[in-house]
Design a protein that fits this description.
The chain is 25% helix and 36% strand. A hairpin with a 4-residue loop joins β4 and β5. It is elongated and about 55 Å long. By secondary structure, it is of the alpha+beta class. It is built from 3 helices and 6 strands; from the N terminus they run βαβαββββα. The strands form 2 sheets. Strands 1-2-6-3 form a 4-stranded antiparallel beta sheet, sandwiched between helices. Strands 4-5 form a two-stranded antiparallel sheet.
């Protein structure tokens, strides 16, 4: 697995902004990513030490449009909450978003 393809997108929400104050960052990652690889990539890319990585998977959901005629399915999303060690400098979310390739 290539290291630069693990982080897919940075999640910017109100809850994520509150977590940023505690030096926690929410990102959408590849479905095959694991904690060790994510920790290494984040350290390599941003030059900060990671304390822990929490992973969770949002299941696929079906959506109906109209009168139930058209059914659409949202894909499975795997998210990670990355916590930095104490004493580390905070990473700017704008820098995070620009560095993640779409």
């Amino acid at each position: 697995m290539q290291m630069d393809t693990l982080i897919k997108k940075v999640v910017v929400t109100e809850k994520g902004a509150q977590l940023e104050g505690a030096k926690k960052y929410v990102v959408i990652v590849d479905t095959n990513a694991n904690k060790v690889a994510l920790k290494q990539e984040f350290t390599k890319r941003y030059g900060v030490k990671v304390a822990k990585v929490n992973l969770f998977t949002s299941p696929a959901k079906t959506k109906q449009k109209g009168k139930g005629i058209f059914v659409n399915k949202r894909p499975v999303l795997k998210k990670a909450i990355i916590t930095l060690k104490k004493g580390e400098k905070a990473v700017d979310l704008i820098k995070l978003k620009k560095s993640v390739k779409k």
